[in-house]
What we know:
The complex is a heterodimer of chains A (279) and B (193). Chain A is α/β, with parallel strands linked by helices and 279 residues long.
Amino acid sequence: MREIHVDEIRDNVAQICVDAAYNLSDDVLTAFDRAQQMETSRGAQEIIGLLKENARVAREEHIPICQDTGIAIFFVEIGQDLRIRNGFIIDAINDGVRKGYKEGYLRKSVVDPITRRNTGDNTPAIIYAELVPGDKLKISFMPKGAGSENMSAIRMLRPTEGVEGIKSFVLDCVQRAGANPCPPVVIGVGIGGDFEKAALLAKKALLRPVGSPNAKLELASLEEALLRTVNKTGIGPEGLGGKVTAMAVHVESFPCHIASLPVAVNINCHAARHKTIIL
Amino acid sequence: MTSPIKIKPPLTEDVIVKLKAGDRVLITGIIYTARDMAHKYLVDCHNNGEKPPFDLAGQILYYTGPTPAPPGKPIGSAGPTTSYRMDKYTPTLLELGLKGMIGKGPRGQEVKDAIRKHKAVYFAAIGGAGALISRAIRKAEVIAYPELGTEAVMRLEVEDFPAVVVNDVHGSDLYQIGVEQYREIDGAEGESC
């Protein structure tokens, strides 16, 4: 049976925490280029130019792209034939967060919800683990800022509201969010399942490379339709007006109860940070 | 696009009344950081009849919680945070003489009214551009509420800090003006959060 030591998990987690905070991935940089081409006004183009420049400065000077280095969210796939040695995987991930956020000079943004006392090391991380076939460990990390997270919403639609109801809810969320989530955004939409499944799908959708369509054709065409619609709002880069309010809409779905149509919207800012490693 | 207007706090009324939504500014001098908890503390302090830890008259508050300063730098990444969370406290601070605020995202009607009434100005900085913005910050020093960590009040020495006027004393709102130019569908449900 393949084995992995918890120290290896900790050190790799620490490294992706820092990497995600400093280095915006290529899919996002490419989406900036596309957005800049789509914009027609100098003001909006200039804003995208500043975002590109910001990403360059962060990468070269080793400082975070955004001061909100987020609450640490992990999606972990554990191969059922893998044995984790010398400790508990959840502790190892939290140790990695502690190490990465300290050594990378990242902001510690996690507090007790009631006392508002800061935990001091950005733990605990939010960790979703699932068992998968094989003997690998896949760790996907998303530092999620609150400006965009606070604009999330979920609604339990009536089944008869269908696709039109979904579209109108997504549009409503984007309009209400306006400039707050730092557009141009990436929009994660979770459809179906139950209350928390829809929310989880919406979040997980944000892990996909920006602009990569869903493999299911009907969902890919829904993504396109939603993107066209939200980009008619005029919100634009930084909410100061423009054609690119969202760089992409990612939809994920799951079967649901005959009486239900849960829809969740989770928005990511333009600094759509995400990193995945396989150990 | 006109060239940026250079301004220096403390801001006086004659400077403020000339600023219009859409004007770009470069701020040089001292500004203070304050976000959620610091706002609550400042207003609680006023309600208890105590003096705030620094004089707000003519000053600019920057809504930010920077990352820790790495070795050799005065501050880490330091972009604006979303402003609506400060709305509840802003009218009181404007009454106390605050003249400028830097953040991102639209303000509520009560804040916009208070901006007109007290002759103040709300600027936006580029949200999510904390690395770039940090280059305009020369010095940073915690001056109040150190227990709040990144949320403590810091005195920042800035040079040519870039921002754009969103809400001016004439009642204009750059977010509304900008979005209306591009809106192709009904936006009545939108407005604010």
